[in-house]
Amino acid sequence: MRALLSEVEARQQEMVDTVIAWSRVNSGSRNLDGLAAMETLILEAFAELEPEIEFIDLPDGEGVTPSGDVIINKNGRCIRLFKRPDANRRVLMTGHTDTVFAIDHDFQEPKWLDDNTLNGPGVADMKGGILVMLNALKAFEASPYALSTGWEVILSPDEETGSLGSAVVLAERAVAADIGMTYEPALADGTLAGARKGSGNFVMVVEGKAAHAGREFFEGRNAVVLMAEIIGALSALTNGKPGLTVNPAVVSGGVAPNVVPDRAVCRFNVRLEQPDDAGWFEARLAKIVEQFGARDGFSVRLHGGINRPPKAISKANQLLMDAIADCGAELGIKVDYVATGGCCEGNNLAAAGLPNVDTLGVRGGLIHSADEFVLVDSFAERAKLSALILMAFAAGALDDVLAAKSQKA
Predict the structure, then answer these.
(1) HEC readout, 177-202
(2) Which phi and psi (to 5°) does residue 208 adopt?
(3) What is residue 1's predicted lDDT score, i.e. its pLDDT?
């Protein structure tokens, strides 16, 4: 194993050069051409592993414009790469090809901040993570343990928009696996995510009646004023359950100061700690829509939903986390975990009953901003960690995780 891990170290510069090249390919979630270009590059990179390949077209999604109109969004397709699907032990490795940076965003070019810090779109989240996954699999496939274990890689094109299209794929493939490994970036100090809050994105649309603000003010129905009341009601739901927060974040409405606005739109997010809190929250939302929609001359409609359930730490998941920490210790890597309010595909896998660790990618930070960075010495470090996890899993060292998962099932 030491020899195989040394070969990972020998590919360190190759990983850095590749992430720079990949970072220059814009693959924002709605840029289907850019996502297709990334798909080609990824298939070329994974070809050495000789996997079976499947493309899974995702259904179109619904979106709401700033003016409140419903539109259809194209979601692209998932890449499924897999080997030995009938093996007794199976691992699901997930990631995403999309970034948050649209094709017209100013942040398009990687640059060095110092000898170990690379700034660039997707270098950490998660083109760098895909390279960690790839190089771990290369080491694993060269090991004597590979033939006993099946692996599957799912790379989605819509994680940054909530995995709305790929959620069904993730759930289906999670059922066929024993453990999950996801390649979101670790924190810069190497800390991994443990429990995660759930999340939902919503759009509230209020329609009233336009009128001249001077001559016919009382003939109008001011949608902005009613939306202000609704925002207060939404905000009041924060702490209705422990750790539950509601964030009304983007508001638009009206066309001119001398016109009573006939439409207002509010986009808001909810974070919740417990799975049962989803029903509580959705019931309160329904009451808000009913209450304010009953006002004379107004209509209120709601779009969206809770797309990522909370990720609680089951016994099986804790055992997996402990085993990964042990693998880190073997390599001289301290592995700690911290609960977070952020969400990722790990939420989806946990909701499907799959124990998983979801920050096995590179060390980095300031993701979702033009200051996103990766610490490049973490490429080989994290690829070795994942390779050792795979070998330990194949050798039976994680069988207590499987037993605990089976007991819960």
Answers:
(1) CCEEEEECCECCCCCEEEEECEEEEE
(2) -120, -130
(3) 82
8 Å CB contact between 319 and 404: yes
Whole-model pTM?
Answer: 0.93
Q: Which residues contact 301 (CB under 8 A, 6 or more apart)?
A: 204, 205, 207, 289, 293
Token pair belonging to 41: 């590059």
Q: What are phi and psi of 198, to 5 degrees?
A: -85, 170
List the one residue out of 233, 253, 252, 235 whose CA is nearest residue 244. Answer: 235
The span from the first CA to the last CA of the chain, in angstroms, equals: 33
- pLDDT score for 61: 87
Helix H, strand E, coil C: the string for the chain is: CHHHHHHHHHCHHHHHHHHHHHHCCCCECCCHHHHHHHHHHHHHHHHHHCCEEEEEECCCEEEECCCCCEEEECCCEEEEEEECCCCCEEEEEEEECCECCCCCCCCCCCEEEECCEEECCCCCCCHHHHHHHHHHHHHHHCCCCHHHEEEEEEEECCHHHCCCCCHHHHHHHHHCCCEEEEECCECCCCCEEEEECEEEEEEEEEECECEECCCCHHHCECHHHHHHHHHHHHHCCCCCCCCCEEEEEEEEECCCCCEECCEEEEEEEEEECCCCHHHHHHHHHHHHHHHHHCCCCCEEEEEEEEEECCECCCHHHHHHHHHHHHHHHHCCCCCCEEEECCCCHHHHHHHCCCCEECECCCEEECCCCCCCEEECCHHHHHHHHHHHHHHHHHCCCCHHHHHHHHHHC
Q: What is the pLDDT of residue 337?
A: 97
φ, ψ dihedrals at 282, nearest 5°: -65, -35
Residues 6+ apart with CB under 8 A from 336: 190, 191, 192, 325
Residues of the chain with pLDDT under 50: none
- The pLDDT score that the predictor gives to residue 408 is 72
Cβ–Cβ under 8 Å, residues 355 and 364: no
